[in-house]
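User: Predict the structure for this protein chain, please.
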Amino acid sequence: MKIQRIAGALGAELHGVDLTQPMSTDVQQAVRAALLEHLVIFFRDQHLSTEQFMRFAQAMGTPVEYPFVKGLDGFPCVIEVKKLEHEKNNFGGIWHSDTTYLEQPPMGSMLLAHEIPPYGGDTLFANQYLAWDTLSDTMKSLLDGLKGISSSAKADVSKTREDRLKTDGKEGAPKNYTHAHPLVRTHPETGRKALYVNVAHTSGIVGMTDEESAPLLKFLFEHQVKAEFTCRFVWRPHSLAFWDNRCTQHNPVNDYHGFKRVMHRITLAGDTPV
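Assistant: Here is the predicted structure, written as structure tokens:
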């Protein structure tokens, strides 16, 4: 297996791995180690059936269902992330870490490209270890111990779900999930601290009024996605991305109006942030 970094902050392509075949224990451990080191890893030219995609996910963790969108027939943990030619909003088209409004947000997420536009549709990723490490000691002491309130109903992110809920929404799903998590979490595997707020879901801070929390959150939202903390992945058909939600954010760029983009996504179970 050859590892090729794509940016200084995070991200690496893994070459020499055929995910259509079952992985040996050694390869599984090497892939997992690459994820922990680079935060998001990418594979090219992986012509995977849904069964093979699921097998890879199960080798890396425990797939879980997404709360709002129903899965593929026979594969409830695999959802279709798509934007059709006539649609203007792309699914999840804002900086975020996946479903932080759940009590146990996912450890990681995987996205497999099936159909991509002729240009555009890249995905940005941001390193939240760096976002935390580069704060002043005074700001760190202010944030450490505080909890952010995550909601699934913030207007900007809700808008990015509208088209999918019309076509693929789950019947009976709650309209809003809300949970509080530390503003800075400690990664359970690396022991490193990462900033754990995001503009899509973090709506306030426990114990603060909205007037008090808004300017602090605005600063953090802008700080945590500085260009020097990011990488950009250019998709091709059959590319696969696997990112660590505990220490990254991502943002799918919505710059391909008039074209179709279809991906399959699996999320992996996580733990309660501390």
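Helices lie at 25-38, 50-60, 128-133, 137-143, 155-168, 210-223.
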